[in-house]
Amino acid sequence: MLHSSGGYLDTKRMLGEVEAEIAKLQRVADALRGTESKQSSNRGRGHGMSAAARRKIGLAQKARWAKQKQAQKPKRTMSVAVRRRMAAAQRARWAKVKAKGNKGNVVTMPKKRTMSAAARRKIAAAQRARWAKVKAAKKTA
Q1: Using one digit for the tens of pLDDT, what is the confidence trace for 60-81?
Q2: E-strand stretches of 59-129
Q3: d(CA 106, CA 102)
Q4: Torsion angle (degrees, nearest 10) of CA 67, 71, 76, 77
Q5: Which residues pair with 8 in a beta bridge?
Q6: What is the largest CA-CA distance in the chain?
Q7: 68: phi then psi, degrees, rounded to nearest 5
Q8: Burial of 26 (0-12, 13-18, 19+ CB in 10 A)
Q9: CA geometry: angle at 124 spanning 120 and 125, to 5°?
Q10: Where are the domains of the chain?
Q11: For residue range 86-135, what is the model confidence (pLDDT) as tens digits?
Q12: What is the distance between the alpha carbons of residues 65 and 106, in angstroms, rounded to a whole number?
């Protein structure tokens, strides 16, 4: 935005000054009313409970987590021999698929159905008859 004297206005700076002035006036109005402003009441606000209460709740939660962890069944693990047998079986399955070639991996679509030439002629003749009937009905109407 061009100022009348030829310079540019610093709108961000001006907006900051206006907001600061509004905040200052708000504090003055609150002081005259005898109340604190919302901004100043948020600053330095304490927690809703004492440190001892927070500690007590934290310890109770940790105890619940420990109890839950104890109740869990141990994770099952496979022996090295079992894992090797599974890996060998999987390799054998893949070898069988690859032995078939690409045909094993390609999804084949069902064969497209086609109509015989005689059937097509029959349908075309029926359709011509229907249209002839519609045209005849229009002429009589």
Answers
A1: 999 999 999 888 888 888 999 9
A2: none
A3: 6
A4: 30
A5: 2
A6: 101
A7: -65, -40
A8: middle
A9: 120
A10: 8-42
A11: 999 999 999 988 887 765 556 677 888 899 999 999 999 999 999 999 99
A12: 51
- 125: left (phi > 0), else alpha (psi -120 to 50), else beta? alpha
Residue the block writes with tokens 């249209």: 131
Which residue is associated with the tokens 């604190």?
A: 36
Q: Which two tokens stand for residue 129?
A: 């008859």
Distance of CA 95 to CAs 39, 88, 90, 91, 104, Å? Answer: 72, 10, 9, 6, 11
Let me know the angle formed at the C-alpha of 110 by 102 and 127, rounded to the nearest 5 degrees: 150
Q: Name the pTM for this structure.
A: 0.26
Assigned token pair, 37: 């402003």
Look at the chain and count its residues: 141
